[in-house]
Amino acid sequence: MNASRLLRVLGIAALAVATRNVSLTAQFAPPAPPPVDLTKVPAGMPAPKTWTAQQDHQDMMDQLGIKALRPGPSGDEKAPNHANYDEATANPYPNLPDVLTLRDGKKVTSAAAWAVRRKEILEDFDREVLGRVPAAVPKVTWTVTRTVDATVGGHAVVGKQLVGHVDNSAYPAIDVDIQMTLVTPKDAKAPVPVMIMFGGGRALPGDPPPAPRGGGPGFVAPPAPAAGAAAGAPGAPAAAPPAGRAATGPPAPSDPPSTEQLIADGWGYASLNPTSVQADNGAGLTRGIVGLVNHGQARKPDDWGALRAWAWGASRGLDYLETERSVNAKQVGIEGVSRYGKAALITMAYDTRFAVVLVGSSGEGGAKLHRRNWGEAVESLTGTGEYHWMAGNFMKYGASEATFGSKNPGDLPVDAHELIALCAPRATFISYGVPEKGDAKWLDHQGSFMAAIAAQPVFKLLGATGLGRSDDYKTERMPAVNVSLLDGQLAWRQHDGGHTDGPNWKYFIPWADRNLKHAPPASAGK
User: Fold this and answer.
1) Which of 93, 119, 210, 214 is the most buried (most CB within 10 A)?
2) Contacts of 274 (CB under 8 A, 6+ apart)
3) pTM for this one?
4) pLDDT of 309-337, one tens digit each?
5) The domain 3-16+57-208+223-516 is classified under which CATH number: 3.40.47.10, 3.40.1190.20, 3.40.50.1820, 3.30.70.20?
6) Calpha distance 239→231 (Å, rounded)
């Protein structure tokens, strides 16, 4: 890596750290697509498109033959088109695709048959929901740019700042440099488990916190969400909140940060900045890793969206951890909250090398059933605001008028229960908070619990333990707040905090220890 690129990457990484402790209403607006060097466009190749999200969205509608999309529901409960919060009308498509029935109608009754069914489900998600990762994605080369000795919660650690440069020799006009930090206990006697945490790219321990990104004289925070609106909902900030919501979230008053809890328990942690892989906006689809493989041109309908790209970035982070002698690469987990909770679940579903996942408040596109009419809906993700998370083909299921007629969520070939099932039999923890503290009804906690219930049969088939409830997703209701379902490899807990997984870390870590057979150091808890 040349000096100018290194300085630029380190500057961006330091800047991204700033939002770790910024409140939800002081998050910054979505960043502009990264600049390109037009002098580096190879001869005979077109320059990268510089469309707005609206232009890119319209191009995909044109490709698909969509003339009109149904509007998404409003997060403002006083609006005429407010989201539904009536359980009596919440299940217009009550029958989910059978996760254990093959396309030919045969029932899946063995691990071998599940392997076939798993490929069928992945193909449906690739084609219709999340998009395909190209067969020939450029190689990533990781570089350690800085190493420090420091302490976390009174424990000695080694911190490394890392940059994963994606080979852009085929299209030098677009740079992709993945930002990640790794912190491990200094005195560990053996390789340690590690949680990769989607977030803003944390500074190394001991670094002074820089000024908040976008802060300083003249900074104006985006407006606070409307009453009842969730992050990303109508009435919320346009891209609230991007990388700035730290994966740890605000801890419960008596809890130390998740990073301190992990180190004290003999874990390491890595922080990966997903927007260094792919921008969190539609205008950025001709940049980042998606734009790089497309040479700066528009996506095709089954090309990957940002969620799948972020998951790909996490897998490349795991590639690096497999080379680290201080890390037990067989015990690496993935974690995220909100949109990064979606990405964490997708990472776990696709990459079977990950051993454990903590899925925080993921909502639509994550653990929530697409077929549920409650809060955030499929139509919320097919408009211009968040369509970039998904494959272009996903827009078909919000179409009211198109050359193919119209489609609705009931036409989707897969649903969220199958995404959770793809994680089986590995340790999968679904986490939510409560609406009263800011984990809005918009996220559909009950719909996410139904999806976990419907995924149980796959965990059981593969010899794992589910939630300890029946498999009847139509009748099962989520347990009371702070009641834990943590006896199996599939786990659920709704804490009494807000839009964060912070209060659940003290439950997640011992649960993960038990599933991974990890013994904390003798000093843990003292």
Assistant:
1) 214
2) 198, 243, 280, 306, 310, 313, 314, 340, 343
3) 0.88
4) 999 999 999 999 999 999 999 999 999 99
5) 3.40.50.1820
6) 8
